[in-house]
């Protein structure tokens, strides 16, 4: 089955860029997602990328997909204290609705 | 509008109680999901309803009983739970169900924080 891996923790200074990395194993994954979860809250969809794309930009967020290496990254420009949260990468195949989540990356933004 | 609502926000129950969690969406989505999330872990899929029919049950114990009364509502009935069932229960919905080849983005509710004493 699909396996999605993320690094556990990232510390970044306010105003710097953050880059969160994710790897997945199933090359037939068609959609790859980034969700944000603040303490005690649900998951907020940040962005997603379809597997035939290699980049998607949405305001401060840039998603890069290297399909050959099965590597996904989320770059947050001008990181703010409100960006402190857990970020989950998730993958799904076209033929099913089961999301496979990575373990989550805890991002801490220091003033 | 991409809102999924869940009630209650918090629930404390004893092991002999019966309670229900509720989830609602008015986006016209035809697939709805229940996830369980333990602290510092990713969500784990429990059930999927597609076009109001149960399509996936991830071997969840029978003390959890899902119900989809209509396309906008999803319930999770709880009975004789154990303390290890304490977790954040998340509901999600997506536009199309498993009948179709395409998959769709899942939108999550804020969750119900359940504590079993």
Relevant terms:
heterodimer; A: 111 residues; mainly beta; six-stranded mixed β-sheet; five-stranded antiparallel β-sheet; 0% helix; B: 117 residues; four-stranded antiparallel β-sheet; 11 strands
Report on this model:
The complex is a heterodimer of chains A (111) and B (117). Chain A contains no helices and eleven strands. Chain A is 0% helix and 59% strand. Chain B is built from no helices and eleven strands. In chain B, the strands form two sheets. In chain B, strands 2, 4, 5, 6, 9, 10 and 11 form a seven-stranded mixed beta sheet that branches. A four-stranded antiparallel beta sheet of chain B has the order 1-3-8-7, with no helix packed on it. The mean pLDDT of chain B is 91. Classes of the chains: A mainly beta (111), B mainly beta (117).
Mean pLDDT of chain A: 92
**What is the strand content of chain B?**
over 45%
Structural class computed from helices and strand pairing of chain B: mainly beta
Which strand-content bin applies to the residues of chain A? Answer: over 45%
Question: Whole-number radius of gyration of chain B?
Answer: 14 Å
Unreliable runs of chain A: none
Q: In one word, what is the shape of chain A?
A: globular
Radius of gyration of chain A: 13 Å
- Report the total helices of chain A: 0
Largest sheet of chain B: 7 strands, mixed
List the uncertain runs of chain B.
Answer: none
Please tally the helical runs of chain B, counting DSSP H or I stretches of 4 or more residues: 0
What is the H-and-E element order of chain A? EEEEEEEEEEE
Helix content of chain A: under 10%
Largest interface: which pair?
A-B, 24 and 30 residues
Following the backbone from N to C, one meets helices and strands of chain B in this order, namely EEEEEEEEEEE
The total strand number of chain B stands at: 11
* Quaternary organisation of the protein chains: heterodimer
Structural class of chain A: mainly beta
Q: Helical residue percent of chain B?
A: under 10%
